[in-house]
What we know:
The chain is an alpha/beta fold.
Amino acid sequence: MTTQNQILPIFTQLPLMASIAIYTVTASQVDDLADLAYTLGYTQESITIFSDENMAASLGERQGYQRLLSAMREGSVTVVFLSEEASIFSNATENVLHVFMHLCMAKGIFVVTAQAVYDFSSLTHAHQFRLHCTGNSPILFLVP
Length: 144
């Protein structure tokens, strides 16, 4: 029996009255993610940008990423927009990925990419996020 990739739509209602974080590793990604946020109904006033361009540092040592985690811990972020899970977490340790995912679960934070919406209250979404971050994703979630 062969297994084919499945495309599963997600019908997740994102909170519109929310504080949005955009995390990027290159400045060129900010506009694309901001446009996605605007398309989903968010305003410029609700967006905070966290970015790191020092790709030599590990993810856990990047200042923008650390500021993002602090904002998540404080509860001042409800939705995080990422350019692509695999590129951001590709060289991250399991612990760094675990901390991010645990914060999303504990604080009810949604993660949005151009291809997916993750609601970490769903173990399926959490599992898919982990698979995408490690480059082993057999299922693609589409933003409705």
